[in-house]
Design goal:
about 400 residues, single chain, alpha/beta
Length: about 400
């Protein structure tokens, strides 16, 4: 049913790489969710007020907050579709992340408010009425929210994790509404008023979910590590081209869903024709661009016809792992002199390595001196998502 609705209301629905289509997807999903949430809010509020149930009213307020969140999401998709300009050369895609963060904060605030209201009901309980209307409206709400979860998951899979967060919220609503229904049934049979407690549980669950979504929304805004599968795909793709000997220093920058930019260094034989190597680099970049990733590659020529340098590079790369197994080196070259030889290379360190860069360089120098006593190491310490792969 989701596909059927999308095909009717979203023009060129399959072209999800087009920002305009993504915006139409987001606005369409937002309108559907707003209509559903407003109807659920009105129905629950009428029943909740009629029977005097704070937990049902709380559930209605939750649906109203969901509708507000949908409006924020629609605005986020609209702003994210703005083209790049002189002040924002990579576009405005991060508005989607900001919209997701705003939605998460609103949900957490609603949870806190519901907890406070429920505590008041627990301290001063009032009688509630259980009847068929309560069962019908709550079961209908759960069915609608299950459909909304599937609907947002399907569209979110195509365009944005913001809608997947909305799908998670719909799933949470099914759980909280189920808790309200269960408390109403138990209260009607036992005579023990659980309404305030159910409202508190609903509020706590909404608060917990909101805090989790806040954490997930902040990550992309702060520049989180890219997905490990994406890193591995980039590595394998680059290494799959003939003539590529290694790759390192991968950096990925996320400017919003579908707006990823990356850069990496590619090692190739220094003795090869420079024009042919440059042509291969261009071809790799264009292949990534066809996948939707703007990639910039830097060519690192390495000596391949000198066995001594080859052996030195392999030996150092192997033995720096005695310091930490995650260390690796790349871009090694030598400058021989009458009394010593400068050995110049980069070393990739993990972010959580406790020793400082100066200490690490000293440790590397001591390791190299055991094999090459005349070597003076000139080490550049760097960090990246992709260690040297040769």
């Amino acid at each position: 049913m989701s596909d059927w609705l999308v095909k009717i209301f979203v023009r060129d629905a399959d072209n999800v790489s087009d920002p305009a289509v993504r915006t139409r997807y987001g606005q369409f999903a937002g309108m559907v969710c707003i209509v559903c949430n407003v109807l659920l809010c009105v129905g629950k509020a009428m029943v909740g007020v009629a029977v005097g149930s704070i937990s049902i009213v709380a559930d209605a307020v939750n649906n109203l907050s969901d509708a507000s969140s949908n409006i924020v999401s629609m605005l986020g998709f609209k702003l994210a579709s703005k083209p790049a300009d002189s002040h924002h050369p990579f576009g405005h895609g991060r508005f989607e992340y900001l919209a997701g963060l705003t939605v998460s904060v609103l949900e957490a605030a609603i949870g806190i408010n519901l907890i406070i209201s429920s505590i008041g009901k627990i301290a001063n309980p009032e009688p509630t009425t259980f009847g068929p209307a309560v069962v019908v409206v709550l079961i209908a709400s759960m069915v609608v929210k299950l459909w909304m979860m599937a609907f947002n998951n399907e569209i979110g899979r195509r365009i944005s994790d913001t809608l997947r967060a909305t799908a998670i919220d719909s799933r949470n609503d099914v759980i909280t509404t189920g808790a309200v229904l269960m408390s109403a049934v138990i209260s009607s049979f036992t005579g023990f008023d659980l309404d305030g407690w159910a409202g508190a549980v609903v509020g706590a669950f909404i608060l917990w979910s909101g805090l989790a979504l806040i954490r997930d929304s902040i990550g992309p805004l702060l520049g989180m590590t890219p997905d490990s599968q994406m890193v591995e795909h980039i590595k394998e793709k680059i290494l799959g081209y003939p003539g590529v000997l290694g790759t390192h220093d991968l950096m990925v920058h996320d400017y919003g869903p579908g707006r990823q930019f990356a850069s990496a260094h590619v090692e190739m034989a220094g003795e090869a024709n420079v024009f042919e190597s440059h042509d291969l680099i261009d071809n790799i970049e264009q292949d990534f661009r066809r996948e939707g990733l703007v990639m910039t590659l830097h060519l690192d020529p390495i000596v391949t016809n000198d066995p001594a340098i080859h052996d030195m590079r392999n030996w150092i790369n192997l033995h720096v792992k005695d310091i930490d197994p995650r260390l690796s080196i790349h871009d090694l070259r030598t400058v021989p002199g009458p009394t010593h030889t400068n050995v110049i290379f980069d070393c990739v360190r993990p972010h959580d390595l406790e020793m400082k860069d100066d200490e690490l360089c000293e440790r590397i120098q001591r390791v190299v001196s055991t094999k090459y006593p005349q070597a003076i190491c000139k080490v550049t310490i760097d960090s990246s998502y992709l260690a040297s792969s040769e």
